[in-house]
Structure formats: structure tokens, C-alpha cells
Amino acid sequence: MAVGGGTGLSTILRGLKLCTDDLTAIVTVADDGGGSGVLREDLGMPPPGDIRHCMEALADQESLMQQLLAYRYPDGRLAGQAFGNLLLAALNGVSGSFDQAVARMGEILAITGRILPVTNTDVQLEAVFDDGSSVLGESKICKFKKEKACRIHHVRLLPEHTPALPAALEAIRRAEILLLGPGSLYTSIIPNLLVDGIAEAMQESRALKIYISNIMTEDGETEGMTAADHLSALLEHGGPGLIQICLCNSQPFDADLLERYHAENACPLQVDPQAIALLGAEAVLRPLADDTGRYARHSGGKVAEAVMELYHQRADTRIF
Predict the structure, then answer these.
(1) CATH for 2-28+162-314 (3.40.190.170, 3.40.50.300, 3.40.50.10680, 3.30.70.2690)
(2) Which helix (H) or strand (E) holds 170?
């Protein structure tokens, strides 16, 4: 099973669904920007965007469904809104809870596996910076951080004691592989660990626990951070025992691509196996990047292959 959010989670789900149909994704609901933010404010529902991305990845007849769910209305009062968000909003209106709406959408799309929101609670993400300042709202963190020119010290959810979806806790307990990431560290990955019970369930799990490290730093969130810094932030928010393996990219990139990322204040994440070992995890390097060369992004197939290789090598029990 995989825990995360954003496009990073959906990318690896595309690869994992080719390896197993016993697949569960636990998805953050802290987003408050774009079309998701509009629906959240207007309808009082959890944001559908990250859920929609995962639905696209796991849907049967993915190419058609991806086009349909990702279609954005070009004009009118719905301009910029994705059809998939509206479909999930409609299902939320006729269902007893948000997780039931997600489950019904999964049935409609005949998805491989299962998608669960980490909580049904309407939550807000707050970032606190090194200088003591803070900002409320996931969509405001990047801009605020750039203006302050300081690092994020920690993030938290409001309300602070947000109950986890019981099905999410049960999925963690029964998992044989637990994947965290890739994705935006403070706004897609860590918010899941702040929901009551999630980090504790992961700590207690006997699954093979792997953090899929980002390939690049992210402007407005993790610039200047290393892979060990990412892992340290995860442990500071979620506690010890979360991660056994830090799976990192070893694939080089050409100079033109790196120059484009440098212009956006991003660079390849530096991996120091010794620093990762000091945090209680093992660094495993594999070529994980997409081969198209247009972006420095993970290949879902390569990640899935590496995960399954590690599982077959190291897990105590097997389900495949």
C-alpha cells in the first residue's frame, strides 16, 4: 500500500497496479487550492483533486478515463474546474460520507485496488517557519516561504486531533509493503502522518517500510534540503520506526534539463547513505527516473520494479 498525495502518488500507482491488484492508496486531504479549494469552500467537502489523480491512475481503460476525469471546462462559471472533481462532489452529495463517495467512484471507474482518504474531517494545514512566523492554508505555504526566505520548521493540522479513517488504519495494519512518497514533503506526504493514529500504525506495522525519496528539490518547500533532511523531517513529524529503506534515484540527467530546473531554483536531491543510516534507515539507490528526458520525474514502472525486488529480497512473508 502507498501513502501520499499529489502527482507523485498517482505516478507510482500506475506502476504498482501492473504488479498487484491488492493495492491500497491512502491520500491526503489537506489541499485547499485550485478547483479543489473552490469545491471545498462552496460545498464543505474534503478536496477531491488528489483523490482524482489516483482514480485516473488506477482506472480501467486509463487513457480514456484520464482524459475524462482531467478535462477542465474552458469557460463559463465552471472555467478551470476538472470534471473528475465535479463527479466526486456529486457522489459526495448523495453518499453518507466522503470515503463512501470515493468508494462509489472507484466502482464506477472499475479501478484496480482501493483508494481511501486519510480522514473524512475538514482539515487545514498550517506551516510554522524557523523565525516563528506561520501561515494557514496549504496553497499559501510556497508563496509565504519565498517571501520570508526561511525554512519550514514544522507543519500541523487544524484541528490538531483529526481522527483517521478506520479503514485506513486497518489497511496499514494488514499491509505487507508500506510506501511513503514520493511527493511534496510538507504539503502532500507529512500531512498524512499528522492524522491521529496513522504514524503509530505505521510504526507498529511489520510491513517492509519504504520511503520513495523525491528526485529533485522543490522551490518554495525543500530547496537546499538533502534526502537525509527529507527523512529527518518525516521522523520529526511522525516519530521513529517509520522507515526502513530510503529508495533514492541514481539516474543522471543531461545538462539542459538540469539548467531548466536550476532556473526554477530546483536541483537533484543529494543522497548521503551515511547520513541516512544515522537516522536508522538504509539508502538504496536505483535508476528511477522517467526516460523521456523532458522532466526529472519518477517512472512508475521503475519504482514498482525496485519495490518488488526489495520486497522479495527482504520481506519475511509474501502475498504475491
Answers:
(1) 3.40.50.10680
(2) helix 166-174
